[in-house]
Amino acid sequence: MTSEKDGEWYVRFKARGRSRAARQTAAADGSQRVLVESGTYTARYRDADGRTVERPTGWSDEANARRRLTKWEREVERVRAGVLSPADVSLSRHVQEPIDSHFAAFETRQQRPAAGGRGRPGRG
Description:
With 124 residues, the protein is of the alpha+beta class. It has a domain at 1-37. It has three helices and six strands, in the order ββββββααα.
């Protein structure tokens, strides 16, 4: 359901069993977007290829969110300078993930059926 208030459009919807309202805007391509406020800061920066990247920082504190953004920008500068490769950055992010997520991914991989019915489960 949409409604207008003070010249801006709002959308009412249910999320996780709760009724919410958020502002509706038009994107550059003309599609309609709903702006939902997050509890954490989102960082926007340019990657080594010049593309704009938006990533959640995971921090609700602005100072910590800015530190995270600075870290990501430093990584981009190192890739541009040739000190790091994009694969190095990807690997360092993968290594920093909690071990529980690695075990969960491993278990999920092991439960998949083998490709073409051959080989060990999870291979393929």
